[in-house]
Amino acid sequence: MIGNPVSHSLSPRMHAVAYQTLGLPYKYVAIRVDTGEVGTALDHLRAMGYTGINVTVPHKEEALAWCEDAQELAVRARAANTLNLQTKSCINTDAPGFLATLQEVPLSSKSALVLGAGGSARAIVLALMGAGFQVNLYNRTHKRAVELAEELGLSQESVLEVADPLGSALLVNTTSASLQNADLPIMWQNAGAEMVAYDLMYSKEPTPFMRAASALGLRAMDGRRMLMEQGALAFEWWTGLTAPRNEMLEALA
Ligand code: NDP
User: Fold this and answer.
1) pLDDT greater at residue 203 or residue 247
2) Is residue 119 pLDDT above 90, yes or no?
3) CB atoms within 10 A of CB 74
4) 5 within ligand 1 shell (Cβ under 6 A)
5) Is-catalytic flag, 60?
6) Which of 73, 97, 163, 245 could cross-link to 230 by cystine, CB 3.0-4.6 Å?
């Protein structure tokens, strides 16, 4: 896997457990690559015999540009997180990985409010729209939410001036506010009792977003299961085998 930074990543441990569980002789390592050098790094890794690559922040767009054959979803999300180096092809497993995690959560309706307008917001909004959700969008910098909505074909009425979850069955935090341990200006008082609060971020302790949701008695989730699902889908694309999901999830505990 390549990214910057990568030292904190749990992916090497998760994939090592998957290989071990199935008795596969593979190795998964994390390599820090600087912005602007992704193409050179991928050429080099390909020449060295690496076959699959995961790409994390902030290189998903550069990785997409390097590929000669990209899945339509990766192109629309402007993000390739899983590459086959030998065929120079790529897919995006973040969006379907996120959707897979929703299967286990009973939602009261197909309406969602997505917070953020960065790279992961684009993938999550695309995933939700593809699954038939009515999506609202809120971002600290309003203009970026307006631009993202325009690009993805969301109506401008869906772009909210304030983070009001009224009527939403699902609230997804794709911002990096939790990374900074910062609170978001969410109108929690308007959240329905059935609403699920989903933070893409994961850490040892519940994030401020999750703590705020739990304090109101709402169901709160972090991004651990999504990390496992996107990794499992990458594993399956590379190997053609069924990923050992339980073991991979345990490796993230
Ligand atoms: P980007 O840098 O592309 O976007 C960041 C977004 O967060 C912007 O919308 C930005 O708003 C907003 N933001 C940042 N700080 C604050 C704050 N203090 N208050 C309110 N809004 C803020 O990041 P990504 O979309 O690539 O990633 C976002 C998060 O998603 C990360 O925490 C990452 O770890 C997580 N993630 C998890 C995955 C998983 O598998 N679980 C997969 C991919 C990502 P503005 O436009 O105003 O600057």
Assistant:
1) 247
2) no
3) 25
4) no
5) yes
6) 97
The rounded Å distance from CA 140 to ligand 1 centre is 11
Q: Strand, helix or coil at 249?
A: helix
Q: What stretches of the chain adopt beta strand conformation (E)?
A: 2-3, 31-32, 52-54, 69-70, 82-84, 89-91, 111-115, 134-138, 170-173, 196-199, 219-221
Q: How far apart are CA 250 and CA 141, in angstroms?
A: 37
Q: How far is ligand 1, taken at its centre, from the CA of residue 216, in Å?
A: 24
- In the reported structure, the alpha carbon of residue 181 is separated from the centroid of ligand 1 by a whole-number distance in angstroms of 12
Instruction: Give the pLDDT of residue 204.
Output: 85
Query: Is-contact 79 119, C-beta < 8 A?
Result: yes
pLDDT digits (tens, 9 = 90+) for 43-53: 999 999 999 99
d(CA 200, CA 195): 16
Assess whether the C-beta atom of 223 lies below 6 angstroms from ligand 1. Answer: yes
With a 6 Å cutoff on the Cβ, whether 230 touches ligand 1 is yes
Whether 154 and 181 have beta carbons less than 8 Å apart is answered as: no
Closest CA to 37 of 45, 25, 48, 29: 45
Listed residue (20, 11, 101) closest to 54, CA to CA = 11
Q: What is the pLDDT of residue 180?
A: 87
> How many residues does this entry show for the chain?
253
